[in-house]
Amino acid sequence: MTPQAATTIANAARPTATPTAQRPDPLTPRQLEVLRIIVEWTDIHHVAPSLKELAWELDTSSAANAMRLLATLVKKGWISRTPFSARAIQVLHRPPPLPDCEWEFHSSPDFLPPELAAEFLAMAGL
Fold first, then answer.
1. Potential cystine with 49: which of 32, 53, 85, 97 (Cβ 3.0-4.6 Å)?
2. Where are the stretches annotated Disordered (predicted)?
3. Which residues contact 79 (CB under 8 A, 6 or more apart)?
């Protein structure tokens, strides 16, 4: 084998980009919700959620649904998982930030039904 052929073979075997450098596929709203839950859980608890914990957070009774959603996130390139390990979820790409929302609270009885407005005014001492 010539040195040039060996170099060509070596370059062909070398990956062009790491999986985390690739742009992941877009997510559905439910998949985005799952990814945000995983990121938030991991940030708070310093460990990824288990399938049961993820199912509980998703308000579903089946860990199989959580597993199916995780498999989709792996396929789309957002997370990776280690087989046969309970909490081995690694986030490869963080979800986009939520838009800033400004909440405006009104302490006016105008937003209440008339029967509750009187009670509200009495509680507020007005």
1. 53
2. 1-27
3. 35, 38, 70, 73, 89, 90, 91, 92
